[in-house]
């Protein structure tokens, strides 16, 4: 991690490192930076793990739905129903321009809602194997939501008001027939995949912003 | 504010319906018996500029033959399906109406199967009289193709109220666990209801008293030790399971043991009530694995046998090696060697006393001779010459 002369981030991290090594400064400040850096890394790792888990879950679930849902090129229409599942796709410039707070909040909100929908699925699905896999995935996803919340807290951002209550948020009626429900399930899994793919990039970006250089210099000074 | 006349004349504008679908299939999500036939229709919504000839059908991703289609109207196409097989997946067969370019217009899930058969073979057991676990088998040897729900119900005979078991899959797929509120000394009626989209089937009622199906934990503190120096015996000791110690019961025990590298267990059946046993007829110098299990029969004087517990974790011990086999890189026939050497020693001793010129003859020479037997012919002859000289001297 090199500090380029004149680089504003470099100067900032150097100052922070210097300050951190002053015994007068309460250790709490730097340990929060340390906390945020680690939390972001952990959250990133969790999204990669979930991505991997989802591949198996999606495979099993789509086989349960049956062909054509499990065909690789399957692409049903997204009917003009009230958007229940938050979409991960976003304009590139918009995405680049997101503040850390907005970036984290978007992730937090999306996974909270996705978790709700997955839990409803868990209650309805037929086979024991699928229920078991879904339950496991929901537990991991819950972990991700908490992890994102942890990052937000350690950076001093307020948590967005989540959809705490009912599983189906108001204004999103349940699918009127079984086939449409299968299509909803298909799109839920697709959105989950896209979100995990996007989150990896979100957290990568955040990793670079919260200077781990502080951590490295501090540890070196302590002789580790 | 529109004048009332205009209000009456203006038709109600249809609300932009967020739920408008391109087409509608009938019947939507039907349930059918295996072998039945079905005629399904796809009607395109008036908002969409599609005609009957622009449509086609697929079932589970496979295109259905055009010969089975019929146009029932300008924008309605039907398909005839005959002698349906059981559903390919429990979530239902996917019957889909497509537009010419492959786009999905509507779909319907077909549930084709059989009604459930009576569940059979209900067996139950109670762990330490605290709970009841039951398992059963589904009636059909084949499957019903539909998702079947099983509900275990129970009630105390003569007391009327049905109860439903809540904790399923505790001991396999077809099992349920009743954790509390069970009474002793009273018969229970237990049965299983199987239901799916095509019907319900109820098993025969099983009647039992909790005390008749008690099982317990395996015996604890199983120790296996040698019996002094005896090579073919091991002593096994254990404690009776603690959970039932306050209840009046006689325990029966069973021991099984096997040699380390074998998978065949030998069972000792007649252990009775004791908490120790001696295994005999074992192989010396061998490692044995031993397990013990318990049957709490005659709880509170119940006449029936209880249910055997699980086997305890295997405990290992080894029998002592026999002495003769101990140590030694002796070649085979070592025993013979001992006697021969002894006799030879005696002979040489006698020779030395009574013969001249045999000073270098002795047991040491004999040993050397044995070593040289392995070596060259020449060396052997040398020794033989020595021996011959000695014999000459003896004469």
UniProtKB/TrEMBL annotation, chain A:
Transmembrane segments: none annotated. Residues 1-27 form the signal peptide. Gene3D superfamilies: 1.20.1250.10. It is found in: Secreted. Forms a heteromeric complex with cardiotrophin-like cytokine CRLF1/CLF-1; the CRLF1-CLCF1 complex is a ligand for the ciliary neurotrophic factor receptor/CNTFR. The CRLF1-CLCF1 heterodimer binds SORL1 (via N-terminal ectodomain); within this complex, the interaction is mediated predominantly by the CRLF1 moiety. The tripartite signaling complex formed by CRLF1, CLCF1 and CNTFR also binds SORL1. Belongs to the IL-6 superfamily. This is Cardiotrophin-like cytokine factor 1. The lineage of its organism: Eukaryota, Metazoa, Chordata, Craniata, Vertebrata.
Automatic annotation (TrEMBL), chain B:
Residues 22-97 form the Ig-like domain. Residues 1-16 form the signal peptide. Its main location: membrane. It is a single-pass type I membrane protein. Residues 118-213, 218-322 form the Fibronectin type-III domain. The keyword Lipoprotein does not apply. PROSITE patterns: FN3, IG_LIKE. Keywords: Disulfide bond, Glycoprotein, Immunoglobulin domain, Membrane, Phosphoprotein, Receptor, Repeat, Secreted, Signal, Transmembrane, Transmembrane helix. InterPro entries: FN3_dom (IPR003961), FN3_sf (IPR036116), Growth/epo_recpt_lig-bind (IPR015152), Ig-like_dom (IPR007110), Ig-like_dom_sf (IPR036179), Ig-like_fold (IPR013783). Pfam families: EpoR_lig-bind, fn3. GO terms for cellular component: CRLF-CLCF1 complex; external side of plasma membrane. It is found in: Membrane; Secreted. GO terms for biological process: negative regulation of neuron apoptotic process. Residues 314-336 are annotated as: Disordered. GO terms for molecular function: cytokine receptor activity. Transmembrane segments: none annotated. It comes from the Eukaryota. Belongs to the type I cytokine receptor family. Type 3 subfamily. This is Cytokine receptor-like factor 1.
